[in-house]
Amino acid sequence: MAFRVDEMDRKILEELQRDSSQSLDEIAKRVGSSKTPVWNRIRKLREAGIIKQQTVLLDAEALGFEACFFVLIRTSEHDAEWQAAFLKALQDRPEVQEAHRLAGDIDYILKVRVTNARAYDVFYQALISEVKVHNVTALLSMEEIKSTSRLPLVDKT
Description:
By secondary structure, the protein is of the alpha+beta class.
């Protein structure tokens, strides 16, 4: 049976997305509840897999990762062995922040964060030495306009 998320759960999740370092007292106050029920709901949301993990967001540029590339990959390989090798290659590279398999002309898109273009080339050369790809197009992001990991859980209207 699927876990049913109600309006109070959504409010709690919205607060956790906004700032997961808040105390239970702060969250309870902001959602109009008390500490124990909020804690019990958070525990159930974790157990249900709705809360996957808690982490911190770092400023990539402040840490020297000034280049963000979106890498479009086309491949002529689609068998399970190639896919497993490709998945392993991506998982072994911390530069890959996101990877998506797509429908359409492009097979995969990667979000790759590196210090500069030279570091991207090192990443690229390593990737193509491990897995065969038909075509790779790298697009350098000139400016990050919006970036969020928050889901729109609570209607703000």
